[in-house]
Amino acid sequence: MAAQVTSTNQGTISVDYANPLLRYVQTLPAPVRERCQEAFQRATEALGVTGDIMAVPHARIPRAAGLAYLRIVLELSGDPLAPIHVGLGAQRDDWGILSYLSSTAETLGQSVRALAKYVALLDDTAALDVAVDEAFVTVSLRRQQGVDLPSEAVEMALSSLLSAGSENLGFPTAPTRVHFRHAAPAHAEHHARLLRAPTHFAQAFDGWVFPAEAQGIPQRSANPTLHRLLSTYADELLQRLPRRRSALQEVRDLMLQRLDETPSAESLAASLAIGERTLRRRLQSNGYTVTTLLEDVRRNEATRLLTHSHMSISEVAFALGFSQPSAFHRAFRRWFGMPPRAYRRTTVGSPLQAFLTGPASEAG
């Protein structure tokens, strides 16, 4: 399909990400709305995007086109708080599978981690880092190296996450505070009122903080079985994204190739022709260690093999580099709260699993 554009140096976004922006434009006076649409058409054509792509569900456009549209709306609306107002208009269904992954998670903590893991489905240059200490959970928005992060996009992204999260995705608590890296704008006094949290500018990160104990708060719409099914499908969608391979993805791919030998930091660094300290530093900048990234790769591959192969549980265990099936069973229970056989019974053969994985099977 022509609307499914390829990646640019600055990445791609899903048109779903623009839903709150499109909704905001519809509230503007007709002449302003028409000027926004005309300016956006000129901007997208300049980037090589043709046709009514915004009407194609889940299509991907150059991230530069999305930023251009946001800036056009900001300029023509005359509203200095447009990015915040756009974000606060986010609704439950705006983000497709990401909305349902977040809303079906059992707890607030699991919901935030689902957002962090799959945020690339909205913007393949974005990352959400989650850091936990004894008192607080910090969720910060980050870009891949070399990708710009304009303040208006940050404000829209964070307000969208906070609005959709607190009102529609089941987040039952307001943040303790919201941080922005950029300097305070002339209208900064309105941010705290609109975001319903103390807002600080010129900070070390873009993101928000909430109490650590809030991680365990149950979500109203929790559905563990559906959440597992959707996670499996989302993992496949991530693999199909037209994005450039980051340094982190290179390490992931290498680990995946060598799972049966439990790759070490030394062997990974040697294969990448970098020093071991450089490897650890790159992983740390993405919130991982060699151990935690290996566990993440194993966890994702375990769900794929259990749902899309006929391998026995023991064969899956050895393919993932576990020395004994019992060790795999213990790890799987820690990851998903159930043994692998129960997970396979829950997912394989269900009508929902067939529906969700059908397109992926046809594409392959």
Description:
The protein is of the alpha+beta class. The chain folds into 3 domains: 12-88; 92-216; 245-359, Homeodomain-like (Arc Repressor Mutant, subunit A, Orthogonal Bundle). The chain has helices at residues 19-26, 30-46, 63-77, 82-88, 97-104, 108-118, 151-167, 189-195, 224-239, 247-257, 265-272, 276-285, 290-308, 313-319, 325-336, 340-347, 351-363, and strands at 12-14, 60-62, 126-132, 136-143, 177-179, 199-200, 206-211. A 5-stranded mixed beta sheet has the order 3-4-7-5-6. Strand 3 (126-132) and strand 4 form a beta hairpin. Helix 1 (19-26) crosses helix 4 (82-88), helix 2 packs antiparallel against helix 3 and helix 11 (265-272) packs across helix 12 (276-285). The two termini are 16 Å apart. Residues 1-9 and 349-364 have low confidence and may be disordered.
